[in-house]
Amino acid sequence: MDQGLVIGDDVRTDGKWGLSPRQLGRIQGLVVSGFAHLPVTRALFLKLDRPGGGWLKALEKVAPVTAATGRLNRSTAIAFTCAGLKRLGLTDTADLSAFALPFREGMHQPDRRRRLGDEEKNGTVIPGGPLWSGDASATPQAADVLLLLYAVDETDLADWCNQVMEALEPEGVSLVRHLDLSLRIDPDGRAREHFGFADGFSQPVPYLAGPSTADPAGGHAARDPWHGVPMGEVLMGYTNAHDEAAPAPIVQRPADIAARHPDLKPDGAPEGFLDLGADGSYLVVRELRQDVAAFWNSLDAAARSLGCPGIDADWLADRIVGREHDGDLLCPAGVHAAVDGQPANDVGFFREDFHGLGCPLGSHVRRANPRDGLAATEADRSALLNAANNHRILRRGRKYGETIQNRLEDDRKERGLLFMCLNTDIVRQFEFIQQTWLLNRNFAGLYGETDPLLGPKGPFTIPKDPVRLKVEVETYVKMVGGDYFFLPSLPALKFMADLT
Ligand code: HEM
């Protein structure tokens, strides 16, 4: 379910990627933590009925946006669509043109819909087309803001949400849509997505690269050999995988306004310029509805039609994901042994499973992160691992809807994943994964296949010795809505609250 972090709040090393307290105090907590200690969340999609950012001051009183410094019993994250920023008071030509093109165009721009596979004819979108986005001309429901409230239990969350809406409605903020999200961690400490797979194990591990971004007060997080990505892949203003500062939108304001926001002054820029992007990120959001009964019924039928001893629906599902139900990564000998009770993740495919005899070449995890598996020779291995790490995303999604009682019985209840991921270059990171890996019909030498978990109906090859297997998979996941959001730093949020 891509919630990002299952066991603890932090990924590795000192847990905060070597960022200093000052840097952590500027960054939204959602970036460095999935708030895994807070199992329930409500995603509020809001519409701004009045211009200006004054309502953010009302929000500050009831749900202050959480910094990356602490661990609280209530935590808040906030992100804005392009239309939302405009409503706050950023202008089209002078301000918004500084933001990345995909963010400005939105996820539902026709060419982008085609590249992301979000066309009804594919069967991967709900009937009637996507329901919501940030663009009122593209979908029936349009949201300007995504407000995420994380709490310890449902009662507290419900009370808190009421307080928040009571504070915001008089400020001209209305609720367009909401989703209740949860982790529902098993007694064994694992959160599972609705098909039943433990999720959230494999994440990039950001490290500070380049002298300009290291704060002497910070710790030192060494580069993780398998999953290390420069900080600029998840936070704007820091050195990214191209060895340059991840581009951040800069706006111009008269000196008196700029003077009120000294924290936003970019290095080297003339007086009056403000860096709105530094310590912020882009949040990709996609509501993905899962048809659990269709998934398991179709795999039951596929296993029966194969008629091979030992192959049942669970065996096929493991191959579709590339990990077995509890999260262990498949390999030719079975699964990679767990490390310290956690599924092994520091492994490649080139040496361990070149032909995909364990973890199929077209499985979800292999497409979503091929690691070194696309190398043609041993000599290319490290270059291809580095190349794959130029396309990593930090996943922060959570599931919505009840767990199904009987996985073979369609209870007609809606459930799925609110997929959320952070990245600074939407085209090179999220869109590349979706288009060039997940939906690529010729990925890793395959022919006419796409991701068996997310793609349209089609074949799925399972390499096997002596003869490979081929099964037909249906469409189990449909896009309900989504868009690109800007997740500001806390100083940028203060500036936005001053806009009129
Ligand atoms: C309902 C939709 C989805 C489901 C049920 C799902 C499920 C899973 C599961 C079970 C894993 C393995 C656990 C792990 O490695 O953390 C996984 C990994 C992953 N998924 Fe998804 N996923 C979904 C959608 C997506 C989408 C839309 C993307 C990106 C466009 C994506 C990208 C990834 C990535 C990058 C990994 C980690 C791969 C690795 O590093 O080994 N997933 N997903």
Report on this model:
The chain has 500 residues and is an alpha+beta fold. It folds into 2 domains: 21-285 and 482-497, no CATH class; 292-396 and 403-480, no CATH class. Helix content is 24%, strand content 19%. It is built from 15 helices and 19 strands. The strands form 6 sheets. Strands 1, 2, 5, 6, 11, 14, 15, 16 and 19 form a 9-stranded antiparallel sheet that branches. Strand 12 and strand 13 (334-335) form a beta hairpin. Helix 3 (55-62) packs antiparallel against helix 7 (154-168). The longest helix has 15 residues, at 154-168. The protein is globular. The two termini are 39 Å apart. Mean pLDDT is 93; it is low at 1-14. The structure holds protoporphyrin IX containing FE. Protoporphyrin IX containing FE binds next to strand 11, helix 12, strand 16 and helix 14.
Tell me what portion of residues adopts beta-strand conformation.
Answer: 15-25%
Mean pLDDT: 93
Shape field = globular
> Biggest sheet, in brief?
9 strands, antiparallel
Helix count, DSSP H or I runs of 4 or more residues = 15
Strand tally, please?
19
Poorly predicted runs are 1-14
How would the blueprint of this fold be written?
Blueprint: H1 21-26, H2 29-32, E1 40-48, H3 55-62, E2 74-80, H4 82-88, H5 101-105, H6 110-115, E3 132-133, E4 141-142, E5 145-151, H7 154-168, E6 173-182, E7 205-207, E8 228-230, E9 250-252, H8 255-260, E10 273-275, E11 281-290, H9 292-306, H10 313-321, E12 330-331, E13 334-335, H11 350-353, H12 364-368, H13 381-388, E14 394-395, E15 398-400, E16 416-423, H14 427-438, E17 458-462, E18 469-473, E19 477-487, H15 490-497
Parallel strand pairs: 3-4, 7-8
Antiparallel strand pairs: 1-5, 1-6, 2-5, 6-15, 9-10, 11-16, 11-19, 12-13, 14-16, 15-16, 17-18
Helix pairs in contact: 3-7, 9-10
Bound molecules: protoporphyrin IX containing FE (HEM).
